[in-house]
Amino acid sequence: MTEKNIPLRTIKSFVIRAGRMTHGQKQAIETGWPQYGLELQQGLLDYSAIFKRNAPVTLEIGFGMGQSLCTMAEQAPEQDFIGIEVHKPGVGALITLLQEKQVTNVRVFNCDAIEVLNNSIADNSLDRLLLFFPDPWHKARHHKRRIVQPEFAALIRRKLKLGGIFHMATDWQPYAEHMLEVMQQAEGYSNLAQDNTYVPRPLERPITKFEARGERLGHGVWDLKFQRIS
User: Fold this and answer.
1) From 112, 127, 135, 171, active-site residue
2) Order of strands, edge to edge, in the sheet holding 106-109?
3) What pLDDT, on the 0 to 100 scale, is given for residue 145?
């Protein structure tokens, strides 16, 4: 087994939650998948063939219901975006938004992010990788399920171009501290925060309704940006 294909873990970083899809979400997937959908069977992606142009590529892991990803793509039409989400209702919701707003610079995977990274994303090919509000796995015995671990940081570094950005955000301070510890120790990265901790919320990351509600209740959000430097 080569280093590139070493599985990062046997435990998934997510739980498949039973959620019913709306009729609209099902219809969006049926009608929109040929345009927006990507499959692991395609192998390594050729971004220029998929998007019919050469442009910076951002990958988002776990886009939820897709509002932020759609907004980012709308606001940056000169860039291309790939989203990964395991929960089908979220995939249907995102495709609904993309169709309604006629956004064309987004493609979608409906599967595990680690499989996508290992099988579909070429090394040194991404300009940015986004990980917003991943499951913090609050209980100590579940901390090993957190996606941000040393092996994951090394995998992301390999997929980013030199100078590429790994941007994380969480509303759970203990997880923010965990992310910071992992990334500070990871090789080949530089923290873009002036004080070597967290960056102010970047303007390119949209505020979700959930985040806005949390802010009104006094909840914090921590953003981390690390750049691949070697």
Assistant:
1) 135
2) 37-38, 106-109, 80-84, 57-61, 126-132, 160-170, 222-228, 189-191
3) 76
